[in-house]
Specification:
The structure is a homodimer. By secondary structure, the first copy, chain A, is mainly alpha-helical. The first copy, chain A, has helices at about 1-15, 20-25, 35-50, 75-85, 95-100, 110-135, 145-180; strands at about 15, 55-60, 65-70. Chain A has a 3-stranded antiparallel sheet with strand order 1-3-2. In chain A, α1 packs across α4 (about 75-85), α2 (about 20-25) crosses α3 and α6 (about 110-135) runs antiparallel to α7 (about 145-180). The longest helix of chain A has about 35 residues, at about 145-180. Chain A binds a DNA duplex through α2 and α3.
Chain lengths: ~180, ~180
DNA sequence: CTTTGCTATGCAACTATGTGCATACTGTTG
DNA sequence: CAACAGTATGCACATAGTTGCATAGCAAAG
C-alpha cells in the first residue's frame, strides 16, 4: 500500500497533523495520489503502530488540540526501501471512456454534457498547476527536492494540456456521429 | 459501481461467459476499465440476482461447461439510466509520480530504471491500440457502436503517445539532476 | 442571534479490489 | 509420459477506499 509511503514522503518535508496531511492530499501530492481525511487518519494510526512516525499532542487555545506527526529514522528507511521496488501501473477506471465504448446504448446529449464537464475539470487543474509553477519554481535556483517536485509538476502540466486537447477532439468526433 | 455497467455494456454486443468477459477486461474494454476474473464472476452473480442478466449453462465436451450470460431488458434500461448520470473523475494513484515528488529521499538509478519500464509499457499499449485500429476500423464504413469504440480508441492513442513523450522528457530532466 | 465555515479528530459500516487457492479436464510440447 | 498451457468457474481472506456520522469550539457574515 503506497498511501503509507505517500504520507511518509509528505512528512520528510516537515512534521504535520492529520489535518495538514489531509489538505496536502487535496492539493500538491494529491495531484498524483488522492486520499480522504479518513484514510489519512487511519493510516497515521498504523504508521504510529509500526514505529514509522512519532506522534505528539500539541495544546492549542481556541481550537482543538492537534497531533503532530514526525517521521522517524525507520520511516525514512521505509521510504528508501520502497523507492527501490518497481511501481505498479496506475489502475485505469474511466467511466467516460466506457460510455464512449458503449455509444450505441448511451444518451448522447448527456454524454456531450459530461464530456464538457470533464474538459472544464482538466482546464481547472491545468491552471492550478501553472499557478503553483509560477509561484514556487519559476526563475528560482532549486535543490534536489524542489527539482523533483518541478519534474512531477511539469509532467502534470503536459498531461493535462494533452488531455484537454484530446477531449476537445472527442467533442468534434461526437458531433460527426450526431449529424448522421 | 461502474463494473456492473461495464459488464452489461460488453454483453450488449453479444452474450458471453465469465471467461470471455474476463478476457475482454484484459483487452478492449480493459483499456478503460480493468477488472480481474474474480471481480467479473462475483459481479455476474450480483447482476443475475438483480435480474439484469440471464444465465444459462451450456454443455461442452472435452472442456468444462460454460455459463452464458445474456443482458435482459432491465439490464439495457440500467445501462441507459447510468449513461444519464454524471461520471466521476478517474481516481489518480501513480506511485511513479509520488517518487518524483519525493526525489530527495529516493534512489535515483532505481527511479530511472522504473521510468524506463513505464515508458516501455506505454509504448506497448500504443502499438496494441494501433494494431486494433488498423485491423478493425481503418477504411471501413462504421455504425454508431463502432464509431464510439473508434473515438475511445483514438483518445487512447493520443493519450499514450503524449504520455510516452512526457516520460521521455522526464528522463532527460532526471539526467540534469544527476549531473549536479 | 442564527447560520455557515473552518479547525481538528476519529468510529462504524459498507463497498470495491486484490491475492491466493481449489477443482477438473484437454491438448500440446519436450 | 510428464509437465505445462489453456478452458472454465468460483471461494475465502485480506486490504483499500467511500459514506455517513459524531464531537466541539471559534470567527465571520447576514
Amino acid at each position: 500500500m503506497a498511501l503509507a509511503e505517500a504520507i511518509l514522503v509528505c512528512l520528510t518535508d516537515r512534521p504535520m497533523s492529520g489535518y495538514d496531511l489531509a489538505k496536502t492530499f487535496d492539493a500538491s501530492i494529491g495531484f498524483f495520489w488522492r486520499a480522504s481525511h479518513q484514510q489519512v487518519y487511519r493510516e497515521l494510526a498504523r504508521l504510529r503502530d509500526r514505529g514509522l512516525v512519532d506522534s505528539t499532542e500539541i495544546e492549542q487555545r481556541g481550537k482543538p488540540n492537534r497531533i503532530l506527526h514526525t517521521i522517524t529514522k525507520s520511516g525514512e528507511e521505509a521510504v528508501y526501501q520502497w523507492s527501490l521496488k518497481p511501481c505498479k501501473m496506475p489502475s485505469i477506471k474511466d467511466e467516460l471512456m466506457v460510455k464512449f465504448y458503449a455509444l450505441e446504448n448511451v444518451d448522447i446529449p448527456a454524454l456531450r454534457e459530461q464530456l464538457g464537464v470533464r474538459i472544464d475539470q482538466h482546464r481547472a487543474k491545468l491552471s492550478a498547476y501553472f499557478r503553483i509553477k509560477e509561484r514556487f519554481y519559476d526563475g528560482k535556483s532549486l535543490n534536489v527536492a524542489q527539482k523533483g517536485k518541478l519534474i512531477a509538476l511539469t509532467m502534470g502540466i503536459s498531461n493535462e494540456k494533452e488531455l484537454t486537447i484530446t477531449l476537445e477532439n472527442a467533442l468534434v468526433m461526437l458531433q460527426d456521429v450526431e449529424e448522421t
